[in-house]
């Protein structure tokens, strides 16, 4: 475009030069007719050669056609007319024609240049429109490619995120492999490998818990049997100090058996065994659990109160009993000496609500979200001769969640810690 603009400018300038040069030719020719000086004749010849050269160049650049031929014909006799003595009238006629033709030539060239400029403007408009359409299409294609690229990347990333969530929840990963870029596919393969390793470790853990619990129960049974024989006086009467030692042995062996049973329950709850639902008489069940802890309650001089009406509820008796046992044991071991424990039950909106509350050290806010994690032990000090296993609350929660219910911390006026059990009266649990 810049080159064409330069050519148009040059063509226009040559047209103006031809007009100016035709005027100079006329002036020099008339002067020579009057003066007859050789210098004027030489100047006229130079001007005529220059005019012809410009005319030839203009014809090559602008293709002026018939005007070029007419001017060439007019220029041929011009030198003779200028040199002749009696050719003034003819010279005037030829010079006038040259001036007119030169003006026509300039006008023709100007029209031609304007026409080409208009064509160039139209071409520029068409080019601009084409570029605009091309840019729009390119932008649309770019957006489509971006969306497709995003889908190619985001889908595997979402699948990886889901796989990581499943790993965190302890659930099995889907067997199909991750697609998309090679790096994401390799990461998916690593997650499958990690899932296999975690499954292997989980199996080893369960096997270890089964073997350890079995191995511990055998010598523990012998210890409890011996302590019971001594306590019953089968081997002879005991004095007061000896009786206290035997009672302490019996209590600690019961506590040890309770820890072993918690480990067994924790292992059993993760085997997804079917529920054994039956109608549970809540007052009777809670009384049985409280009786198991009567010795501990007496030793710590705790005031334990049960509160609730006669009520039958469909539940897995063993799981509900294990949950209550762990919660009451937790309240005794972490509650205040000479404190209070409340076990209360009621129904609200067709849901069974059981509260197990105690006075003593409250659970700090930073630990409230983690106390149900397996083997987690907070800052609260357990009061007793044995250190807890850290799975009591985890087992209790799993027992309740197996019923479709929930076990949460609850604020109860007059007590520092309260665990609330909520059980739905679901159709699949109804008796």
Overview of this structure, please?
With 431 residues, the chain is α+β, with helices and mostly antiparallel strands. Helix content is 66%, strand content 10%. The strands form two sheets. The chain has a five-stranded mixed β-sheet with strand order 2-4-5-7-6. A hairpin with a 7-residue loop joins strand 6 and strand 7. The model is unreliable at 427-431 (pLDDT under 50).
Q: Quick check: average pLDDT?
A: 77
Strand order of the largest sheet: 2-4-5-7-6
Q: Describe the biggest sheet? A: 5 strands, mixed
Helical stretch tally: 12
Strand content: 5-15%
Whole-number radius of gyration?
55 Å
Level of helix content? 55-70%
The tally of beta strands, per DSSP, is: 7
Protein structure class? alpha+beta
- Using the alpha-carbon principal axes, give the shape: rod-shaped
Essential attributes:
disordered C terminus, five-stranded mixed sheet, two-stranded antiparallel ribbon, 7 strands, 431 residues, alpha+beta
